[in-house]
């Protein structure tokens, strides 16, 4: 590990010594002084947000501004104005002339997070500013100049987005002069229990509780699990354990209970059995019971997300009636027992939406893209819903504007 890699790790509290993680940090440190665009790739929750910060802090622009923009969280109608500014009167509500991030951060670095979410029209503006340093405020014909370094990040396969016509090929090549791939947590071996220990210490400090520890079997299980939500998912799970099991040594069972099933329906437990560590039949049965419990709660949260107007007529869900509490609508036929209606609390549409969004995020370990896919909405709509419904997101996932 070079001195600079160590410094970067210390400065940003990055935990881990796996070769793939260290190689990614080293790449960031090496490219920092060279003024090139960098594309950071990696699954959701893998820790991409450290990398633009390292690049800014270890480069010549470190005393200038650093602005992080979450492209997926800004409504399509305002993103051009956010990035490039607007002229007074250029659209309804444009009361004053406003500077965009590209003007504000002149001389510094802009981090374009979730860059695949940029609308095609904004991609064209971005390409121009990257190639010539020139841009126009929305509603203005006066060309302005700026000197910005771009670091972009994405958890989607941009080449696939190019193939689908959703991302400009020329912009892809312009952005990806240097690519830094952040490894999946699953591939980081011993880093996993190391991170769990660090998060345990952090949360015990935050909640003023005794830290949790992990049994050897729990550590083995966490090294076998797939971690679809990567470090963010591990952090969330350690937080729950730190809150509700303070001071305990966490067993494999306690850990596994909190791991969701993956989308194929196969359990994380299946992966954990491959090393032959669960020999006894009893153990396997126990796992099946847990698997069923997970499936049931998954089913429940899916049902919670179904809005009444999308429902089939009452009575067509004979096998799930006991689970579906609020599908009874006033238009339903006489089978609706008014006594039942009285005792069953009918949640509002907003409650149903909140449940569905929260359940989808939970099921996908906080992975917003996968959650949006499951909910059959765009990531942008998901962000809007998260805001509207007052759901809490992991820090760093909000649009932010910060200076290092
Ligand atoms: N190596 C690490 N050491 C300590 N904390 C980490 C590490 N990697 C990630 N984290 C933490 O995990 C969380 C998720 O990381 P981050 O927000 O960077 O993910 P991401 O790759 O940007 O995900 P997304 O694509 O969903 O935006 C953050 O709280 C971050 O601080
Ligand atoms: Mg991110």
Plain-language structure description:
The chain has 18 helices and nine strands. Strands 2-3-6-1-7 form a five-stranded parallel β-sheet, with helices on one face. The chain folds into three domains: 3-183, P-loop containing nucleotide triphosphate hydrolases (Rossmann fold), CATH 3.40.50.300; 186-292, Helicase, Ruva Protein, domain 3 (Orthogonal Bundle); 303-388, Orthogonal Bundle (Arc Repressor Mutant, subunit A). The chain is 45% helix and 8% strand. By secondary structure, it is an alpha/beta fold. Adenosine-5'-triphosphate is lined by residues 14-16, 42, 44-49, 155, 195, 231-232, 235, 394-397.
| CATH fold title of the largest domain | Rossmann fold
What is the multimeric organization of the chains shown?
Answer: single chain
| Major sheet strand order | 2-3-6-1-7
CATH 4th-level superfamily of the largest domain? P-loop containing nucleotide triphosphate hydrolases
Helical amount among residues, as a percent range? Answer: 40-55%
Bound molecules: adenosine-5'-triphosphate, magnesium ion
Count of separate DSSP helical elements = 18
Order of helices and strands: HHEHEHHEHEEEHHEHEHHEHHHHHHH
CATH architectural name of the largest domain: 3-Layer(aba) Sandwich
What is the SS-derived class?
alpha/beta
CATH class of the largest domain: Alpha Beta
Coarse shape: globular
Largest sheet: 5 strands, parallel
Contiguous low-pLDDT stretches (5 residues minimum) are 263-284, 308-345, 395-404
| N- to C-terminal distance | 24 Å
């Amino acid at each position: 590990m070079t001195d600079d890699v160590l410094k970067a790790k210390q400065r940003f509290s990055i935990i881990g010594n796996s070769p793939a993680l260290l190689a990614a940090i080293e790449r960031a440190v090496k490219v920092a002084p060279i003024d090139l665009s960098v594309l950071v790739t990696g699954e959701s929750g893998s820790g991409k947000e450290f990398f633009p910060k390292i690049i800014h802090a270890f480069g010549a622009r470190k005393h200038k501004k650093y602005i992080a923009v979450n492209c997926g969280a800004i409504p399509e109608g305002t993103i051009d104005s956010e990035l490039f500014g607007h002229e007074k009167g250029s659209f309804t509500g444009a009361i004053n002339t406003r500077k965009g991030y590209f003007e504000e951060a002149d001389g510094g670095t802009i981090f374009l997070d979730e860059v695949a979410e940029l609308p095609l029209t904004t991609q064209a503006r971005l390409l121009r500013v990257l190639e010539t340093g020139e841009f126009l405020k929305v509603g203005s014909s006066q060309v302005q100049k700026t000197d910005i370094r771009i670091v972009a990040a994405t958890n989607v396969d941009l080449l696939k987005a190019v193939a689908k016509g959703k991302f400009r090929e020329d912009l892809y090549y312009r952005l990806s002069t240097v690519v830094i791939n952040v490894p999946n947590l699953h591939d980081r071996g011993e880093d996993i229990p190391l991170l769990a220990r660090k998060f345990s210490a952090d949360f015990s400090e935050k909640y003023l509780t005794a830290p949790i520890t992990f049994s050897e079997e729990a550590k083995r299980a966490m090294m076998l699990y797939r971690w679809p939500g990567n470090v963010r998912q591990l952090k969330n799970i350690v937080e729950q354990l730190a809150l509700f099991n303070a001071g305990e040594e966490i067993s494999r069972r306690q850990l596994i209970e909190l791991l969701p099933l993956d989308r194929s329906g196969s359990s994380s437990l299946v992966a954990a059995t491959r090393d032959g560590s669960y020999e006894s039949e009893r153990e396997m049965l126990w796992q099946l019971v847990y698997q069923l419990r997970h499936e049931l709660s998954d089913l429940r949260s899916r049902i919670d997300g179904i809005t009444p107007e999308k429902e089939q007529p009452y009575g067509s869900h004979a096998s799930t009636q006991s689970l579906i509490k609020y599908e009874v609508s006033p238009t339903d036929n006489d089978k609706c027992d008014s006594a039942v209606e009285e005792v069953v609390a009918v949640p509002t549409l907003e409650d149903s939406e909140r449940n569905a969004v929260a359940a989808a995020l939970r099921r996908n370990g906080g992975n917003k893209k996968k959650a949006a896919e499951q909910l059959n909405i765009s990531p942008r709509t998901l962000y809007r819903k998260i805001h509207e419904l007052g759901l809490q997101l992991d820090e760093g996932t909000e649009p932010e504007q910060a200076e290092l």
